Each structure stands twice: as C-alpha cells, then as structure tokens.
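Hi team,

Filling in the usual template for the complex we talked about on Friday. All components are listed, including any nucleic acid strands or ligand strings, so the model treats them as one assembly.

SUBMITTER: L.P.
PURPOSE: interface mapping
COMPONENTS: two
RESIDUES: 538
SEQUENCES:
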Amino acid sequence: MNALQKLESANHNNKFICVGLDTDINKLPESLLKESNPILEFNRRIIEATSKYAAAYKINFAFYEVEGANGLKNIEQTLNYIPQDILTIGDAKRGDIGNTSKKYASAVFNSMGFDSITLHPYMGYDSVSPFLEYDDKLNFILALTSNPGASDFEKLKLSDGSYVFQKVINAVNNWNKKKNCGIVFGATRSEELNENFEHIRDLPVLLPGVGAQGGKLHDVVNAFKEINRKRYLINISRGIIYKDSSDDFDMNAAEEIISLNNQVSNILS
Amino acid sequence: MNALQKLESANHNNKFICVGLDTDINKLPESLLKESNPILEFNRRIIEATSKYAAAYKINFAFYEVEGANGLKNIEQTLNYIPQDILTIGDAKRGDIGNTSKKYASAVFNSMGFDSITLHPYMGYDSVSPFLEYDDKLNFILALTSNPGASDFEKLKLSDGSYVFQKVINAVNNWNKKKNCGIVFGATRSEELNENFEHIRDLPVLLPGVGAQGGKLHDVVNAFKEINRKRYLINISRGIIYKDSSDDFDMNAAEEIISLNNQVSNILS
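RESULT (copied from the run log):
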C-alpha cells in the first residue's frame, strides 16, 4: 500500500486518530527510567497497545533531535515497531532550496523510510518539488496551523481578498499531480474548516490542535461528516501518550484512543 | 563573544564571506574516499585552510541528516574544528509550535552549540519565540529567499500594498528585543536589497544566492556600501568548497575565499 492508500484504508475502518509520539524523557513514567533506552521502550509499549486503533503515527522530530545521534536512532527504531499497514508521518517541517530539499527528502523517505512528511510552504514550489517526486509518499504542507502565531502571516489578507493560507492550499492542489499532497490545517476553530472546504477540495488533511491546543473532536468530525468526505487525520499527542503516568500508561493510552474512536463512530453513525 | 559580536568583529576586519559546508559525499575529491570518514576529513581540511579568511561557517543540516545518526555526529565534530571566535550558523530552517520549537532550539543551541540558526517564519511569533530566549545567539529568519519559489508566497501582495516578506521583516524588527534576530535575504537581485533597506533597518542579514544561484557579489557589497552599513554575511557554498576536486581542494578553496575577500575590499575602499 502506498501512503494515501494506508490513510484511506484507516479511514474506511473508521480510524481517524493519529497518535503523536512527542516523546519527552522528562514526561515518562518513572518506572521506565530504569530501562536502558526509556524513550524507545515507551514508544514500543505505546505502539504495541494502540496499533489496533491508530490511523497513523506521527513522530515529532524535535523531541528526538534534542537527544542528538541517539535520538535519530530512536526514530529509526521506533519506525520498526509500527505495523507496515499503518501510515507513518515524519513531522519534520522541512523546506529549503531545491538541492537541499532533495537531501531532506532522501533522509526522511529513503534513509528513514517514513510514508509521509510535514513541510513548510514559505519558500514555494521548488522547495517542495523534490518531495513530490516520491509517488508513493504523502506530503502534508502547512496551510493553517493551530498555534496563536497563525495570525501573524498565514492569515494576512492579500490584495485579491484571500488569505495567504488559502493561496497555499490552492497551490498544493496544483502541485498534487501525483496524488501525493495533503495539507496541515489546525483544528482549533472548526468554522475555519467549513469556510475553507472549497479550497481544500479532496486533499488529505492532517489536523493538529484537538485536545491540548483547544480544538474539539466533535466539531472537526462533524465538519467532515457534513460534506460527506473522509481522507483526514486528527492528531493527538499529549492527550493520548501522557494520559496517565502510572505503570499502565500504555493500557491507559489504548483506552483513550478506543474512547476517541467510539466518539468518532457515534458522530458518524 | 556572543553571536552578534562575532559577526560584527568579522565585518570589522572586512570579512563578509560565510563558507557554506554543504558537504556531499558524491562531490568529494576521490582521494578522500579512502579516509574512514571522508565528509569529516573534507570539512576539517576546508576549515583549516579557510578559517583565517571566513566570516562564518554555515552547516546545511540536510546534507548531514541524509547520513542518519552518523551525519549528526559529523555536524558535532565539524563544529569542533571551527575556531571559537568565528560565527557558526546551523542552517536547519526550523519552525514549529512553541513546545516543539523549544526542543529544536535546545537541540541546535544547547546540545550542538551553534551560535545561530535559520528559521521559517510561516507559523508566526510563538514558533520563533523559544529561539529568541537565547540572548547570546542569532536567529536568521527567512524573509526573501534566493530560489525561484520566492515568488509563490513570499512575494504575494497584501491588501495594504506591501509584500508578505516585508511583513516578515517588520515583524522580525519587533521581535528583536534582545538584539538576537537577523534575516535571510536572497542576493539574486540586488535592487530588491536597495528597495528594502527601509524595512531591514539594522538587522543582521544573511545573503544566500551569490554564485551558483546567480547573484553578483559586487552588487550586494555595493548595496550595503551605499548606505554605509555592515552586519551582513554573503554565503557561498559550492563556489568555495567545490572550487576544485583535486587533492589540493582545500588550498583552492582558500585561494577562492581570499580572492572573494579581495574583491570585497576593493569595492569597499
């Protein structure tokens, strides 16, 4: 299965929750700290407990890069724990001039083997195009993000009356010749989703911002239900993996994602 | 010396050339391939030969990340070869929500020990602010880049008549409370520099795009000379480090930067 097929297959089975592995050594259950590699053991147990219920796993590179070379090894090892049929997202937010982006694409898609990546649009088409050459991958390009700073540039109003982030979404549609593009669209305000479906069209959407950042699961699922479409992932990181800091953190994470899946199913049925 | 002082000290000594270490295993002199770590040996010799003449060294992360964990080790080892008084730039082009940017900042500034970093502005203030907490570092935020895609979003015209990249520059001036901000401004068209000095004001400027990307050294230096200001770095990567692929690549790189420094001095005198 290619990346898009993995996403569609998950959605077909009513799985929409992406588990964000923002694994922070300072937030691990104390019982894990005696392990030789606490971060890796945490990820292993989280994945083992949740993989039946997860639509995707998103690895936030910053949390691993802060550990240097060992952190990169932990990313690679973590990928080995994720079943082949589940979409993996390298949340790396890369984007540079062409010959540099080519190296980043090779690092994340070839060397590490991720199914998909998150990208910055700021530098335009040629900064993204080396990633688009990978037919079987998915490139989630930042459109409207879930943080307060989204107002600073993403929501600037252009001379034609549209917003910068809408130009990005329209461009991503043009770049999507190989059906390997998607967007990141913050789920903090669901009315913004409704207002922008005409731009988003059928692009896959990765939605951060539900939970810790204030977005509501119900509103997001409902917005997609109303236009009768799928191809989306709701990312939840801290709300799942740090649901509980006891020795049973993995079982509690599983319970949480099961509960989230049930909420989604109830809204969709 | 903090990062800004290193930049100012270099400029004071008429050094404006930043050597970009875009070190690619496929482009190394054949004689190096027998070394146990050809990339590191290449960087060591380039730095040893050029450090008297370089204003700064910029390490392009993509070229190292593509080698996985070993690549990260090469970044750290390369930093050890750079004399303490020369500015180091981690060309990582990071930018994410606050709690994630905090990790990236710690990775590049604390763990690796870079003096400065390049950042994506797209996600706005809170995506940059964790980097701004480091008083003694420099944050070069992408404004107008040197690639063709700069036209796609950076040069979109806003409803008030200005361009997106100008809003970024104005914002960076507002974020510069601790005098630890700068911008990246592509040097492909020097008239754009002249037209935007009123926005740039006294921000340090990192200028890519001279050489392989088509910008002219003379025009850039002249633009700054005309307004009688310094605080800038002209990055040249391939034009210096791959000047020559013989065994004397390091001496040829040194000759090239000496020649560039002489050109600059001639313009300034």
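MY TAKE: Chain B is about 45% helix and 15% strand. Chain B touches chain A through 61 residues (CB under 8 Å).

Thanks, L.
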